[in-house]
Every structure is written in C-alpha cells, then in structure tokens.
Design goal:
Blueprint lengths: L1 H24 L6 H23 L12 H29 L1
Length: about 100
Amino acid sequence: MEGMLVNLITQAIGGAIGGNAVGAAKSDLSLGTLGNTIAGAIGGGVGGQILSALIPMLAAGAGGMDIASLAGNLVGGGVTGAIVTAVVAAIMNRAK
C-alpha cells in the first residue's frame, strides 16, 4: 500500500512537470500555470497508474522501491501529464 502511494505521488509530480513543460514549449497549448499543473498532475496520476498496470516493472515489487521504478514512474507520469494537458488545451482552444 505504501509503495502504491509513493508511485501515485511520483507520477502526479511527473505529470505536473510534463504539463508545465508542454505549456511552456507551445503557448497555444497552455492553460496557465495552475491549469497546466492540475491537468498534468491528473493526467500523470491516471496515466501512470495505467502504465503501471500494463508494465509491472514500474510498480514497486516485493523488493521495495528502487531508482529505476521511481524514474520510470516519473517519466511515465510526465509523458501522460503532457499529453493530457495538450489535449485539454486543444479542446479548450477549439471551443473558443
């Protein structure tokens, strides 16, 4: 249970970073700092959990946490957070 919570927090942090990175890289896909952070964190948490279910190596096993699983969770959360932020921003811009 404790490892799962650490994974979720790591994925959400990675998602927030990814969301802000995509917002900074492409201004028309930005929701503002707070919007990028929230969309990225949600996308990182949800997407990271899906990735952990598909790739069991990312989930902390019985051996405990290691740097590889933390890095995998951070990168997986970052990528999915960036994707979710970009999609939400594109939908919001399309609606204007």
